[in-house]
Amino acid sequence: MLIFRNKAPLTAYLQEARAAGQRIGFVPTMGALHEGHLFLVRAAAAQSDVVVVSIFVNPTQFNDPEDFKKYPVRTDTDTEKLLASPASVLFLPDVSEIYGNVKGEEPLEHYDFGKLETRWEGALRPGHFQGVGQVMARLLAAVPADRLFMGLKDYQQILIVKRLLALLSIKTELIPCPILREKDGLAMSSRNLRLSPAARRQAPLLHETLVFVRDHLDAMPRAKLIARAIERLEDAGFEVDYLALTGEDLEPVAAGDLPALCIVAAWLDGVRLIDNLAL
Ligand code: AMP
After folding, report:
1. Residue 37 known to be catalytic
2. Probe residue for ligand 1, chosen from 85, 154, 193 as the CB with the greatest number of ligand atoms within 8 Å
3. pLDDT at 106 over 70
4. Residue 103: its pLDDT value, please?
């Protein structure tokens, strides 16, 4: 596996590979890698000749500076995991390599993400998706990828990146990949590392509640079902940001329409967890 810390040699290497007919797959991450990430790496390897993984904890997508400070950094163990995976290139830039020296820089770009910006994660984490757009535009400029592999755990992020690709006329194809879960149903996440042992035991209730909603969709009025689901979570110590039934575009569904997804975000033990379930 080749390791690059700088954009220019990485881009030159990948352009040469592309010119030689190799297909480039790209898996952007913020590190503290788990099986969910490694699944994306394997999915990329099945459809690419060169698999690029980036690890970059992007400061501009953290609306809460404390969350950024506490984000787990595990570069050594991440590198070991990737060495044992089909990844062929690791991109490990630092903040100045991605954003340049802040002094004298142009202001960061602002993208029109429409309603996605003001719904759910967008409403609760102001600026978060602008940060995702800013970093993805820079990463994709450095990594000329044929395909981009991202997890459906961050469903809204997938819609945002799809829109970004269209806005910037980038030809990279976005491949959404399924949510990997622990045996007890908890969606794998780097943030799970921050849960106390007691909170970790409670955490699977988030997925159980999504399953409860799915299984009772026809059994009770929707408003009552959602209220019951939120109550279950609150009784177990969660603080719920939202739990909702939506269409594939994440818009709320009208009373007569079938929802496509149940989405949830909740705090447990000072850690914010998100999950979703296709219905
Ligand atoms: P992150 O490092 O959290 O920014 O995630 C990097 C990529 O891995 C994103 O595309 C995530 O959606 C994806 N990902 C994170 N957790 C999971 C999971 N449990 N299953 C599948 N993909 C995931």
Report:
1. yes
2. 154
3. no
4. 59
